[in-house]
Design a protein that fits this description.
The protein is mostly beta strands and about 650 residues long. The chain contains five helices and 38 strands. It has one domain: Beta Barrel (Maltoporin, Chain A).
Length: about 650
């Protein structure tokens, strides 16, 4: 894999040099070239294809109408290749790319029905709902690579081509190999999707289909043996020289592995009048007045933990098991039927929509000891009224009426009120949710953890939100209030007598009433070519220790952006800083794949972490260079976000992507 990545790196550098040289061609040669092209263009009706001819849609978009949006060719935020370190969605994790991760900020899960309850690696999955369906007048392909001769090596390839004007096929493939920073932090994944979108000539029939596959493999080192910050004292030492609790290699390497594969098919048919916007243009939209749709999907998930070594440093709860195989397997078959009716005027500025649906889910569950079959039947629907771009009101509902998770529901209402570009937009929101405990809370049959809990109650959530956004001022703000009853989490079993048999044993727990206020403010400033982007999140709850989340998180990005060399080189260079206040850091249960609250109250001071970066776009090429945690050379020398798992040291990263239209 390393030789492949180095080869790709060399190829990309050569192509970059070629592109730059092309941008520096002298005027005489350019004129001759333009004349030759003009003569060639006169011979045939040719089109110079660009990104505006490559467009895509998502499942959520196509549920409303047949329309697309142009692919993004900018280099904005290109440096954030690691999903653990997205500034707008920060996380805590085990210290290296691909390892177990949990949201740093409180993020509610608005799903209902059967859920396995494993989330530690889900940021890396490709799921059917996230697949893109393309419309490409020319074959579109993209190569993306990060790392090469560095520890993180991430590769992605995409290809999309229309077989004819109505039918497109697309595929993407992702591969990652990382060594990590500390011993046994290697991570690898192989994942991808194949998709197709067919639309009949009459524009009334649409078929969407995709197949997704994910193989995610994260090594486990059980954390470092030193439970203090002394590993950061003195001279900065190589992380690989620091002792970890699990040291198995090759066939004995401890790991958590996820296999997640699925097939999705959607067919929809439009009846009645079709309203067309931007007819004949790439951005053409087809709006139906009646729509019938059927979705069907098959998804199989397997969660595997393996180790084959003695537990010499107490990485696990008390026990003498040497070889451990813990596996959970979930298979789901889902069918959904929907009917949608639209009522709108000829100008398409005012529209009313009514949607009703029925969904059936069949679930097969198996773990080390048990096998079960579950079924859920749900009704869903929504009503929406849109008045021009001024008012958009929507009310939706989803309730399970028969089955294993009977009584689960989610009812939601939103209202957008636009007041013009100068004043901005206000969004009001509210939802109520009743959710069954996820399976990991009610049942666990693993080597170190066993429980059967039928006494857990459904989690009830009430939410109110207010959002104001003004693009002209570069401001956005959102205030959210949550009232949660029976919030579920994992905690370490009470052990007042320090019984070693109870150390690191975890159990499900539920809170009483939990109140949370979350305020998010974003403000972007611009001074000529200089920019300062800011994000501040304040969270306050009467049970902050249960949520294990900081009270304050801030992120700031100061950068210079310009275009040089006769508009050939579009670039930005900047410095990012992030900070969050100390909070009760959770611990990680390795074989269960869960973060939990321990009996030891430890708060880690999270100092500002600074990253320097450079991004650029040259023709169809995006490139980034970043140096992360650069202040390690000054202060602090290191930090934690999860107990006993030090975060990554300072590191340098390079990435490039190339888009082709031909």
């Amino acid at each position: 894999m390393r030789s492949l990545m180095r080869g790709l790196f060399g190829w990309c550098i050569l192509m970059l040099i070629g592109l730059y040289s092309y941008g520096q061609v002298d005027d005489e040669f350019s004129s001759a070239l333009d004349s030759a092209r003009a003569l060639e263009d006169n011979k045939k009706d040719s089109v110079v294809f660009s990104a505006k001819y490559v467009r895509y849609a998502t499942l959520d978009m196509l549920k409303h109408a047949s329309y697309t949006q142009q692919i993004d060719t900018s280099h904005r935020n290109f440096q954030y290749y690691n999903k653990q370190n997205l500034p707008w969605n920060p996380s805590i994790h085990l210290g290296s790319y691909g390892l177990a991760t949990r949201d740093l900020l409180f993020t509610p899960d608005k799903s209902i029905g059967f859920q396995p309850g494993f989330h530690a690696l889900e940021r890396y999955l490709i799921l059917p709902d996230s697949v893109r369906y393309y419309r490409a007048r020319a074959r579109y392909s993209e190569l993306y690579a990060v790392g090469f001769f560095f520890d993180d090596q991430v590769f992605r390839a995409r290809l999309a081509q229309n077989i004819n004007p109505q039918w497109n096929i697309a595929a993407e493939y992702h591969a990652a190999n990382t060594d990590g920073f500390y011993y046994n932090q290697a991570y690898s994944d192989r994942k991808g999707s194949v998709s197709t979108w067919y639309e009949s000539k009459s524009r009334r029939y649409n078929l969407l289909m995709n197949a997704t596959f994910n193989k995610v493999d994260a090594s486990e080192n059980g954390s470092v043996t030193n439970d203090t910050t002394s590993i950061f004292e003195g001279e900065i030492q190589s992380p690989f020289s620091i002792q970890t609790k699990l040291r198995g290699q090759q066939q004995n390497r401890p790991f958590n592995k996820w296999l997640d594969n699925g097939v999705f098919l959607r067919q929809s048919f439009y009846l009645g009048r079709l309203d067309t916007v931007h007819a004949g243009k790439p951005e053409m939209e087809i709006h139906p007045t009646n729509a019938f749709a059927h979705n069907t999907s098959i998804r199989q998930r397997k969660y595997i933990f393996f180790k084959n070594e003695e537990d010499l440093y107490s990485a696990f709860p008390f026990g003498d098991a040497v070889e451990v195989h813990d596996t959970t397997k979930v298979t789901n078959i889902s069918n959904e039927f929907t009917y949608t009716f639209y009522l709108r005027n000829k100008s398409l500025k005012n529209e009313a929509k009514v949607n009703v649906g029925f969904q059936n889910d069949l679930i097969w569950y198996a773990d080390n000891l048990t096998r079960d079959f579950f079924q859920n039947n749900a009704v869903k629907g929504d009503i929406r009224y849109q008045f021009s771009d001024k008012v958009d009101v929507a009310v939706s509902g989803h309730q399970i009426v028969v089955g294993e998770n009977f009584g689960d529901y989610l009812y939601e209402a939103t209202a957008d009120v636009g007041m013009g570009q100068k004043i901005g937009k206000v969004t009001l929101g509210a939802y109520t949710q009743n959710k069954s405990p996820e399976m990991v809370f009610t049942r666990m049959n693993y080597t170190y953890h066993q429980w059967l809990r039928n006494d857990l109650n459904k989690t009830k959530t009430q939410n109110l939100s207010f959002r104001y956004k003004n693009d002209k001022l570069g401001f956005s703000g959102k205030a959210e209030y949550f009232l949660i009853n029976n919030y579920l989490y994992f905690r370490e079993v009470d052990n007042p007598n320090d019984n070693e048999r109870l150390d690191r044993l975890i159990e499900p727990a539920q809170s009483g009433n939990l109140n949370l206020l979350k305020v998010t403010v974003g403000q972007n400033f611009k001074f000529g070519n200089f920019h300062l982007d800011n994000l501040v999140v304040y969270q306050k709850s009467d049970q902050m220790d249960i949520l294990s989340t900081p009270e304050l998180y801030t992120w700031h990005s100061f950068y210079y952006q310009d275009i040089w060399f006769d508009k050939v080189l579009d670039f930005a260079i900047g410095l990012d800083g992030k900070f969050n206040t100390p909070f009760k850091a959770p611990t990680y249960a390795i074989n269960a794949g869960q973060f939990y609250n321990s009996n030891v109250d430890i708060e880690f001071s999270t100092y500002p972490v600074l990253d320097a970066w450079f991004t650029t776009n040259i023709k169809r090429v995006n490139l980034f260079i970043s140096y992360n945690f650069l202040n390690q050379n000054f202060y602090p020398r290191g930090y934690y976000t999860v107990r006993r798992y030090p975060m990554n040291p300072a590191n340098f990263r390079f990435g490039v992507s190339w888009k082709f239209y031909d």
